[in-house]
């Protein structure tokens, strides 16, 4: 009996510092892989939205910025909103899948952050819908696009500050730079800069996150 009790006591001994650190590091790495796993999909999907959606506007306006391209404004809008709808569905599923395993403060932050996007675009719709009627078609489209990009860039940087995610801040800053350059260049070039510069940045970010999680899973 005493030998059994000794074995039980030995099995239940307190873990040493190195063993505890190993367990903590393993759990941290597993959590990091879990939360980073949907990011490449998210980035690539939204990169395609920027490339296809704003690419359609570039085809519409061309380098001259005149609305005489081979596709109509309605077709360009259909491509943009169609790709956004697909991306929102995919993003919503990924967000639900991740959020279902998160509770407490993190969940509350995510909810407030999501509502901030809603109210941001509500303001864009109100402002651009009112003042856009005073502008020609190409300039009206530019107003909608640059205002939408402004919301995206600012909320990306704000989200980076909330969750301390530096790549997210860099992407938001890059979107702001592309937006300013495009506004100064005109409707056609704004669409081109957005499609190639922002769409390409999202796809590149997705590839980098994917590679980092595969090459350095413990530091994702």
TrEMBL record:
<keyword id="KW-0812">Transmembrane</keyword>
<feature type="transmembrane region" description="Helical">
    <location>
        <begin position="41"/>
        <end position="59"/>
    </location>
</feature>
<keyword id="KW-0472">Membrane</keyword>
<feature type="transmembrane region" description="Helical">
    <location>
        <begin position="191"/>
        <end position="211"/>
    </location>
</feature>
<feature type="transmembrane region" description="Helical">
    <location>
        <begin position="168"/>
        <end position="185"/>
    </location>
</feature>
<feature type="transmembrane region" description="Helical">
    <location>
        <begin position="141"/>
        <end position="163"/>
    </location>
</feature>
<protein>
    <recommendedName>
        <fullName>Transporter</fullName>
    </recommendedName>
</protein>
<feature type="transmembrane region" description="Helical">
    <location>
        <begin position="115"/>
        <end position="135"/>
    </location>
</feature>
<feature type="transmembrane region" description="Helical">
    <location>
        <begin position="71"/>
        <end position="94"/>
    </location>
</feature>
<keyword id="KW-1133">Transmembrane helix</keyword>
């Amino acid at each position: 009996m005493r030998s059994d009790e000794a074995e039980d006591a030995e099995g239940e001994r307190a873990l040493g510092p190195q063993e505890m650190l190993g367990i903590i590091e393993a759990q941290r790495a597993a959590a990091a892989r879990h939360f980073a796993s949907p990011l490449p999909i998210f980035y690539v999907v939204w990169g395609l939205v920027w490339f296809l959606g704003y690419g359609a506007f570039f085809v519409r306006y061309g380098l001259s910025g005149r609305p005489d391209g081979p596709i109509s404004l309605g077709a360009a809008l259909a491509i943009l909103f169609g790709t956004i709808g697909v991306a929102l569905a995919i993003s919503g599923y990924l967000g639900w899948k991740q959020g279902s395993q998160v509770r407490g403060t993190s969940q509350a932050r995510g909810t407030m952050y999501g509502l901030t996007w809603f109210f941001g675009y509500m303001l864009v719709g109100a402002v651009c819908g009112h003042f856009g009627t005073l502008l020609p078609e190409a300039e009206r489209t530019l107003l909608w696009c640059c205002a939408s990009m402004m919301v995206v860039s600012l909320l990306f940087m704000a989200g980076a500050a909330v969750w301390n995610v530096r790549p997210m801040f860099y992407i938001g800053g890059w979107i702001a730079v592309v937006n300013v350059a495009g506004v100064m260049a005109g409707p056609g070039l704004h669409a081109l800069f957005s499609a190639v510069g922002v769409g390409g940045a999202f796809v590149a970010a997705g590839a980098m996150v994917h590679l980092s999680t595969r090459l350095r899973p413990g530091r994702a």
